[in-house]
From TrEMBL:
Subcellular location: Mitochondrion inner membrane
Similarity comment: Belongs to the mitochondrial carrier (TC 2.A.29) family.
Keyword flag Acetylation: no
Annotated Pfam families: Mito_carr
GO molecular function, one term: phosphate transmembrane transporter activity
Solcar repeats: 5-89, 102-186, 203-282
Superkingdom of origin organism: Eukaryota
Membrane topology: Multi-pass membrane protein
One of the GO biological process terms: mitochondrial phosphate ion transmembrane transport
Protein name as annotated: Mitochondrial phosphate carrier protein
UniProt keywords, alphabetically: Membrane, Mitochondrion, Mitochondrion inner membrane, Repeat, Transmembrane, Transmembrane helix, Transport
Cellular component GO terms held in the UniProt record: mitochondrial inner membrane
Protein's UniProt keywords contain Oxidoreductase: no
Length: 284
């Protein structure tokens, strides 16, 4: 496989793994965002699902699926494509001897650099998604939400959540990639009795999903405060980061919607790594 084919496979794998998984979990994300934005109405996970279904029907649970699919497909392309690029780039800077010794640093630096770029692509879609999911009018769609943000806030409305998004996604992705890589290494070292290259493809994909789930739970906890800020800033006009923190409170910042996010992100990350590795195995 040439370098171009390798990066193309990484980009396509990222699109599939991030776009499809995030879109598939739209109902969980919808409940989580409403719990964060309207805690007095949506007091728990079961209450959130119940109220949304009672008021708007089961079909309404997929509100926001289109900006979710588009945004996270773009993010996945940049995240996985640039992660593979930066891993090689930073390893070349350190040299083979030091790169082998400091793998974790390369994982952390590569994932942080890739996510910094990926979030610039994601941010406008995230703003539209949150507007669709928390707007009182449940019939509002992608184009209406886009026009609403543009009319009321201009182009700044699409990027006002970028700093909190970086605050959520960069630590999330650093933990996601570094924890995944180290967990995979540990599984093959201590649990699976045969070398990785001798394992069946099914076993390799199973290891990827298990390691991805462990990484997902870890990064959900690390990035949750910033996730709350992103939701509040994109659903409340005129608030800055400090205003949002005062509104939710320090305890709420760390705990509101956390159990659902752990369930969602653990499953999401496990599925992402499974899909990503499956695609790369398929195209080899």
């Amino acid at each position: 496989m040439s370098a171009f084919e390798f990066y193309l496979a990484s980009v396509c794998g990222g699109i599939l793994s991030c776009g499809l998984t995030h879109a598939g979990l739209t109902p969980f994300d919808l409940v989580k965002c409403n719990m964060q934005a309207n805690p007095s109405t949506y007091k728990s996970i079961s209450c959130g699902f119940g109220k949304l279904c009672d008021k708007h029907g089961v079909g309404a649970l997929f509100r926001g699926w289109l900006p979710t699919l588009l945004g996270y497909s773009a993010q996945g392309a940049f995240k996985f494509g640039f992660y593979e690029f930066f891993k090689i780039f930073y390893a070349d800077i350190l040299g083979q001897k030091h790169a082998q010794k400091h793998k974790t640093i390369i994982y952390l630096a590569g994932s942080a650099s890739a996510e910094f770029i990926a979030d610039i692509a994601l941010c406008p879609f995230e703003a539209v998604k949150l507007r669709v999911q928390t707007h009182p009018d449940v019939t509002i769609g992608f184009l209406e939400a886009f026009a609403d943000i543009w009319a009321n806030q201009g182009h700044n409305g699409f990027y006002k959540g970028l700093l909190p998004l970086w605050g959520r996604q960069i630590p999330y992705t650093m933990v996601k990639f570094a924890c995944f890589e180290k967990t995979v290494e540990s599984i093959y070292k201590y649990i699976v009795p045969i070398p990785r290259e001798k394992c069946s493809k099914a076993m390799q994909l199973g290891v990827s999903f298990a390691a991805g789930y462990v990484a997902g739970v870890s990064c959900a906890v690390v990035s949750h405060p910033a996730d709350n800020l992103v939701s509040i800033l994109n659903t409340s006009s005129g608030l800055c980061v400090l205003d949002a923190i005062k509104k939710i409170g320090v305890v709420g910042l760390f705990t509101r919607g956390l159990p659902l996010r752990i369930l969602m992100v653990g499953t999401l990350t496990g599925a992402q790594w499974g899909i990503y590795d499956a695609f790369k195995v398929y195209v080899k």
